[in-house]
Amino acid sequence: MKIGIIGGAGPEASAFFVKQLVNIWQKKFHAVNDWEFPEIILHSVPFEDMLGSSFNEDKVKNQVHRSLSFLRGQKCDSIVIACQTLHHFVDDNFFGDDTIHLLKLLAKCCTEMSLQVSTEPISILASITSATEKIHVPYFSKNTIINYPQPELSQKFIMEILAGNTDRISLDQVLNRIGIKKGTVILGCTEFSLLKRSDTKQHCFPGKILDPLYLAAEQLAQKFSKTHIPKAST
User: Fold this and answer.
1) How far apart are CA 227 and CA 208, in angstroms?
2) Which residues pair with 143 in a beta bridge?
3) What pLDDT score does 198 carry?
4) CA 93, 96, 98 angle in degrees (round to 5)?
């Protein structure tokens, strides 16, 4: 199995996705030796700014389309765009059976967990661009209550994470600062996947937290398991 990852937005989060894949292969398939892991191509692209008040949409679109074409040229079986904001710039005809669509994956997961029929809102931690464009909304049912709480503050945290300051704050502290006390939270920017949870139970967010990178890694493992027999544990 060959997995292609469009990374670079941001670079550390997409590299962390590789770590998630390795960890899931170790856990689910007891992988130890090099040949027991999937082949992974991480194409880290220095994307144009897409978080500012103005950006060159055509340039970002061309960059992500070129990266998709590159990974398909490498004969990748599955491709993941490790950035939710980037999905907004991809033409529908560029998505195919080989592409894991993170926004659709999140909506499917919420449906399976019966969250789309809940009266509680789903809070999405996202960049200003994702929140302004409401990029997740089209993939959820019309009855689903979706909030993008304090996107300006969320983006400040995103910029801190992009600068490498992940030890200064936990994910639970971010949720508290933004004012999310309960319910379901979607990590609508993959940078938030880099944050650790609080060490103390009393400071831990009590609701559900959905990490799309972890969900994508799980889906890739399921696809792999259909064609490979896992090694028996000892």
Assistant:
1) 31
2) none
3) 82
4) 155
CA dist 72 and 188 (Å) reads 26
Low-confidence stretches of the chain (pLDDT beneath 50): 230, 232-234
Tell me the C-alpha distance between 135 and 122, whole Å: 14
Cα gap 126→196, rounded to integer Å:
17
Task: Say how far apart CA 198 and CA 181 lie, in whole Å.
Answer: 14
* Coil vs helix vs strand at 146: strand
Residue 41 DSSP SS3: strand
- Amino acid identity, position 143: N
3-class SS of residue 9: coil
Which strand (E) or helix (H) includes residue 66? helix 57-73
The enclosing H or E element of 210 equals strand 208-210
Angle at which helices 11-29 and 151-162 pack, to 10 degrees?
80
Q: Tell me how crowded residue 139 is: count the other CB atoms within 10 A of its CB.
A: 17
* Locus of tokens 């962390």: 16
Distance CA 149, CA 215 (A): 22
- For the chain, the straight-line distance linking the first and the last C-alpha, in angstroms and rounded, comes to 24
Cβ atoms < 10 Å from Cβ of 75: 11
* Omega prior to 96 cis, within 30 of 0: no
Written as six digits, the tokens of 15 are: 């590299």
The pTM of this model reads: 0.89
Cβ pair 188, 128 in contact under 8 A: no
* pLDDT of the residue at 76: 96
Tokens of 210: 């959905």
Q: Would you list the DSSP string of 127-152?
A: -HHHHHHTTTGGGS-TT--EE---HH
